[in-house]
Design goal:
This protein is mostly beta strands. It contains 4 helices and 15 strands.
Length: about 230
């Protein structure tokens, strides 16, 4: 399942986001809610279609799960129907499309991930072609990790990593009887962001690359005091 990248969610009117405690229920997207947001032309949807979006609490939305891994349990997968798509000006950079959306559902991310059935075709770890090699070679970005952090969250493992080539990656994995299953994958680089959701068995080269990164990782911990209430 493709996750469409939404840079920012609109702030809810009447909610003080600077307060010591913010109600999670008050700021979550609700079915029936309508909003307008721009997406890159390459990430555009179609009128009548449904987009799958990731919603994160305010702190991790701004700073990343790697800075507040506990908020993985307070993150949601939002499905939104596309009511209208309007192409931005031709000279806009990067080219974008404005989407009028209506929220259809908002599901807690972790229960959804744990309930996924295996689907080997849902996604693969990103690959990069080294055209300067002789002969040209293809390698996994996870084989080029220069920094990695991990956090165990409710039976799953969250992994964040970066490379010297300015790529930033995230995985959520589950280990079952010695096998490693990927459930969520994000890859961000200067060319854009790609996110996928689905249960895939990581084997061979992919498993070796991820396990090597995990073995050399540092533990991740929350950098912000709890602020979300019911």
């Amino acid at each position: 399942m493709k996750i469409h990248y939404l840079e920012t969610w609109p702030r809810v009117a009447g909610v003080d986001y600077q307060a010591g405690t913010v109600s999670l229920k008050a700021i979550l997207p609700a079915p029936g809610q309508q909003l307008s947001r721009a997406f890159a032309l390459t990430d555009s949807g179609q009128t009548g279609g449904v987009l799958h979006l990731l919603w994160q609490p305010p702190f991790s939305a701004e700073n990343g799960w790697s800075e507040q891994p506990s908020e993985l349990l307070q993150s949601f997968l939002v499905s939104a129907k596309v009511l209208r798509v309007v192409r931005d000006r031709e000279d806009s950079s990067p080219p974008r499309c404005l989407h009028d959306l209506e929220i259809v559902s908002c599901e807690a991310l972790f229960p959804l991930l744990k309930a996924l059935g295996e689907d080997a075709a849902s996604w693969q770890l990103p690959k990069v072609l080294d055209a300067d090699a002789n002969p040209p070679q293809t390698f996994l970005t996870w084989e080029e990790v220069s920094w990695c952090g991990t956090a165990a969250i409710d039976g799953l493992t969250y992994i964040a990593a970066s490379t010297a080539a300015e790529a930033y990656m995230e995985l959520i994995v589950e280990e079952v009887n010695g096998q490693l299953f990927g459930l969520f994958c994000t890859h961000l680089d200067p060319g854009g962001t790609s996110s996928r959701l689905g249960r895939c068995l990581l084997g061979g080269r992919e498993e070796r690359a991820v396990r090597r990164a995990m073995q050399n990782s540092r533990p991740l911990a929350d950098s912000c005091s709890p602020y979300l209430g019911a």
